[in-house]
């Protein structure tokens, strides 16, 4: 199942008031009921610009602006309630303010309202309603909503499954640089889901996501390079992407990096480095890494020989159904 994209926090920018006289003038306007001034003053308290940072004061001024119907204040007030920042956390209140702003056509509020319905936060879970609000935001070009709408079409959640629509919305989001959409487009082209199988196109989208630091895209791009699928086979390039993903904690990339060191692909042969990366992946439960680590302990390759430690890792691997680990473990029994 595709995951939904979540934006944690966003505020709309305002003019910066750095001088005392300007700040006093802004405060006076806010106290006189000017909604934009109230919003801007709240923003300054949120950012700590010219005043001590104070989220309770932020909520106070955004509430005044929101009560006057200022959509951006309503949106951000909803976020403050959703996260319990400057106010007691209240997801129902958050939905209320998202709804007011969403009806004014503010895309980010529409997206947040969709997310609330999708997850059942502050409102009854309703994926049909979620899709409705994602669509409104998506049609305004809001990339996270485009991605989530694509995911709902791809999985048939909240609306009838439609592969063409899924690809359409992923493309819209990916074209704006949405990293999750880029990665998922890569998966779709690699597997032939919703589109004709095309590893060159998969490589294109995984590269875009990988260059933004998407860990799964980095690992997957490494696999394309090591196998020469959709790209010219290049062990050095594979090594580069495996390392980036491995250093972010991806167990598949860690395992593959261990293989690269052990077999001297794209790097000088180094058993100690192979053990290092097998161990990192094995600790995360990768059965293949656990098996290979067991072998390294038996052989004393890159690490001191230790048959008992080997058995521990082989048992972990065998417990996950690794046939070769079970065979080797049995052969070690007295």
Structure commentary:
The structure is a single chain. This protein has 334 residues and is mainly alpha-helical. It is built from 18 helices and no strands. The protein has helices spanning 20-31, 35-47, 55-67, 71-83, 91-102, 107-119, 127-138, 143-155, 163-175, 179-191, 199-211, 215-227, 235-247, 251-263, 271-283, 287-299, 307-319, 323-331. The model is unreliable at 1-11 (pLDDT under 50).
From the helix content, strand content and strand pairing, which structural class follows?
Answer: mainly alpha
Measured distance between first and last alpha carbons = 46 Å
Radius of gyration computed on alpha carbons: 26 Å
Low-confidence stretches: 1-11
Q: Quick one: biggest sheet?
A: none
Q: Would you count the extended β strands for me?
A: 0
Report strand %.
Answer: under 5%
Descriptors for this entry?
334 residues; 18 helices; mainly alpha; 0% strand; 68% helix
Summarize the structure.
The chain has helices spanning 20-31, 35-47, 55-67, 71-83, 91-102, 107-119, 127-138, 143-155, 163-175, 179-191, 199-211, 215-227, 235-247, 251-263, 271-283, 287-299, 307-319, 323-331.
Q: What's the topology here?
A:
Blueprint: H1 20-31, H2 35-47, H3 55-67, H4 71-83, H5 91-102, H6 107-119, H7 127-138, H8 143-155, H9 163-175, H10 179-191, H11 199-211, H12 215-227, H13 235-247, H14 251-263, H15 271-283, H16 287-299, H17 307-319, H18 323-331
Helix pairs in contact: 1-2, 2-3, 3-4, 4-5, 5-6, 6-7, 7-8, 8-9, 9-10, 10-11, 11-12, 12-13, 13-14, 14-15, 15-16, 16-17, 17-18
């Amino acid at each position: 199942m595709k995951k939904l994209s979540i934006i944690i926090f966003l505020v709309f920018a305002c003019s910066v008031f750095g001088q005392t006289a300007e700040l006093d003038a802004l405060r006076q306007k806010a106290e006189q009921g000017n909604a934009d001034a109230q919003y801007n003053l709240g923003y300054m308290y949120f950012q700590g610009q010219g005043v001590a940072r104070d989220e309770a004061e932020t909520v106070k001024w955004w509430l005044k602006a929101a009560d006057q119907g200022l959509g951006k204040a309503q949106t951000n007030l909803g976020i403050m309630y959703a996260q319990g920042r400057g106010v007691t956390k209240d997801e129902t209140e958050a939905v209320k303010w998202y709804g007011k702003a969403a009806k004014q056509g503010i895309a980010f509020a529409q997206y947040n309202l969709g997310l609330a319905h999708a997850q059942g936060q502050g409102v009854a879970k309703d994926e049909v309603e979620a899709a409705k609000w994602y669509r409104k935001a998506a049609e305004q070009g809001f990339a996270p909503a485009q991605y989530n709408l694509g995911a709902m079409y791809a999985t048939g959640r909240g609306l009838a499954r439609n592969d063409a629509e899924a690809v359409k919305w992923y493309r819209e989001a990916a074209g704006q640089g949405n990293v999750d959409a880029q990665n998922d487009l890569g998966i779709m082209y690699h597997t032939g889901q919703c589109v004709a199988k095309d590893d060159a196109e998969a490589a294109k989208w995984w590269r875009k996501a990988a260059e933004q630091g998407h860990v799964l895209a980095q690992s997957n791009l490494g696999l394309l390079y090591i196998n020469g699928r959709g790209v010219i086979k290049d062990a050095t390039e594979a090594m580069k992407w495996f390392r980036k993903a491995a250093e972010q904690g991806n167990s598949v990339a860690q395992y593959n990096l261990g293989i690269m060191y052990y077999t001297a692909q794209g790097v000088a042969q180094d058993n100690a480095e192979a053990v290092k990366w097998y161990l990192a992946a094995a600790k995360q439960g990768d059965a293949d890494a656990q098996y290979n680590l067991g072998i390294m302990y038996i052989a004393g390759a890159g690490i001191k020989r230790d048959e008992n430690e080997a058995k521990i890792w082989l048992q972990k691997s065998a417990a996950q159904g690794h046939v070769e680990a079970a065979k080797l473990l049995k052969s070690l029994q007295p």
